[in-house]
Amino acid sequence: MTASKQIISTDGAPAAIGPYSQAVRAGGFVFLSGQIPLDPATGQMVEGDIEAQTRRVMANLEAVLTAAGTTFDRVVRATIYLTDLGDFAKVNAIYGEKFAKDPPARATVQVAALPKGAHVEIDLVAIA
User: Fold this and answer.
1) Which of 2, 1, 124 is nearest to 67 (CA)?
2) Architecture of domain 5-127
3) Which end of the chain offers a freer environment for a tag, N or C, measured as fewer CB atoms within 10 Å?
């Protein structure tokens, strides 16, 4: 049996800033690359606090999920990267708006830094 993969791309989320795809569909799943709070129209970081950054990240993820033909309801795994775990409650509240019922498995970690000075990055795995 030959495994195949399909690259997912959308203008509704920021273009990749390196050698990676916004998402890849393979084996019945869609693997979304981490999204940081870049405005897809300008390629610039959104202005504002951690809530504004998190809302932009979630909007970017939603655009990629939509392009892949899936939704937040089909997400099975998430990883949240924060530069300050003190922001956990604020990020968690916004993240939770998309996962009110049957939330996915998840890990949240503090990291020293994220690309472009972002304070939050989230990646997902969803059922295709």
Assistant:
1) 124
2) 2-Layer Sandwich (3.30)
3) N
